[in-house]
Amino acid sequence: MVTIEILASCSGINFSYFPGEVVDVEPEQAADLIKHQLALPVEPKKPETAAVVPTGQLAKRTPAGQTATVKPNAETRRR
User: Fold this and answer.
1) Residues annotated as region Disordered (predicted)?
2) Fewer CB within 10 A of the terminal residue: the chain, N end or C end?
Protein backbone atom coordinates (compact mmCIF):
# COMPACT_ATOMS: atom_id res chain seq x y z
CA MET A 1 0.00 0.00 0.00
CA VAL A 2 1.12 3.53 -0.79
CA THR A 3 -0.02 6.63 1.10
CA ILE A 4 -1.07 9.58 -1.09
CA GLU A 5 -2.78 12.95 -0.64
CA ILE A 6 -5.58 13.67 -3.08
CA LEU A 7 -5.32 17.03 -4.89
CA ALA A 8 -8.59 16.96 -6.88
CA SER A 9 -11.86 15.06 -6.65
CA CYS A 10 -11.70 11.76 -8.47
CA SER A 11 -13.65 8.53 -8.50
CA GLY A 12 -13.66 5.13 -10.11
CA ILE A 13 -15.49 1.83 -9.91
CA ASN A 14 -14.31 1.04 -6.35
CA PHE A 15 -13.20 4.43 -4.99
CA SER A 16 -14.17 8.07 -4.49
CA TYR A 17 -11.72 10.65 -3.13
CA PHE A 18 -11.99 14.32 -2.21
CA PRO A 19 -9.26 17.03 -2.16
CA GLY A 20 -7.12 16.94 0.97
CA GLU A 21 -7.90 13.31 1.78
CA VAL A 22 -4.89 11.14 2.73
CA VAL A 23 -5.48 7.52 1.71
CA ASP A 24 -3.65 4.21 1.35
CA VAL A 25 -4.00 2.71 -2.13
CA GLU A 26 -2.44 -0.03 -4.23
CA PRO A 27 0.87 0.98 -5.90
CA GLU A 28 -0.64 0.84 -9.44
CA GLN A 29 -3.51 3.16 -8.50
CA ALA A 30 -1.15 5.54 -6.69
CA ALA A 31 1.17 5.73 -9.73
CA ASP A 32 -1.81 6.47 -12.02
CA LEU A 33 -3.22 9.23 -9.77
CA ILE A 34 0.21 10.81 -9.32
CA LYS A 35 0.93 10.59 -13.08
CA HIS A 36 -2.28 12.52 -13.85
CA GLN A 37 -1.54 15.10 -11.11
CA LEU A 38 -4.54 14.09 -9.01
CA ALA A 39 -2.43 13.11 -5.98
CA LEU A 40 0.94 13.53 -4.30
CA PRO A 41 2.93 10.81 -2.50
CA VAL A 42 3.05 11.18 1.28
CA GLU A 43 5.85 9.89 3.46
CA PRO A 44 4.41 7.56 6.10
CA LYS A 45 4.66 9.00 9.60
CA LYS A 46 6.60 7.06 12.19
CA PRO A 47 4.52 6.22 15.25
CA GLU A 48 5.39 8.22 18.33
CA THR A 49 6.72 6.33 21.29
CA ALA A 50 5.17 6.99 24.66
CA ALA A 51 7.31 7.87 27.63
CA VAL A 52 6.77 6.06 30.91
CA VAL A 53 5.83 8.46 33.68
CA PRO A 54 6.36 7.25 37.24
CA THR A 55 3.20 7.35 39.38
CA GLY A 56 4.86 7.61 42.75
CA GLN A 57 3.23 4.42 44.02
CA LEU A 58 5.57 1.84 45.49
CA ALA A 59 5.14 -1.69 46.74
CA LYS A 60 6.34 -2.54 50.24
CA ARG A 61 7.14 -6.02 51.46
CA THR A 62 5.48 -7.34 54.57
CA PRO A 63 7.51 -9.39 57.06
CA ALA A 64 6.08 -12.50 55.36
CA GLY A 65 7.65 -11.41 52.05
CA GLN A 66 4.38 -10.46 50.36
CA THR A 67 3.92 -7.16 48.55
CA ALA A 68 1.02 -4.77 48.80
CA THR A 69 0.36 -1.60 46.83
CA VAL A 70 0.81 1.52 48.90
CA LYS A 71 -1.57 4.37 48.12
CA PRO A 72 -0.03 7.83 47.72
CA ASN A 73 -0.26 10.13 50.70
CA ALA A 74 -3.61 11.82 50.30
CA GLU A 75 -6.22 13.10 52.65
CA THR A 76 -9.13 10.76 53.13
CA ARG A 77 -12.64 12.06 53.21
CA ARG A 78 -14.46 11.67 56.50
CA ARG A 79 -17.97 10.36 56.44
Assistant:
1) 56-79
2) C
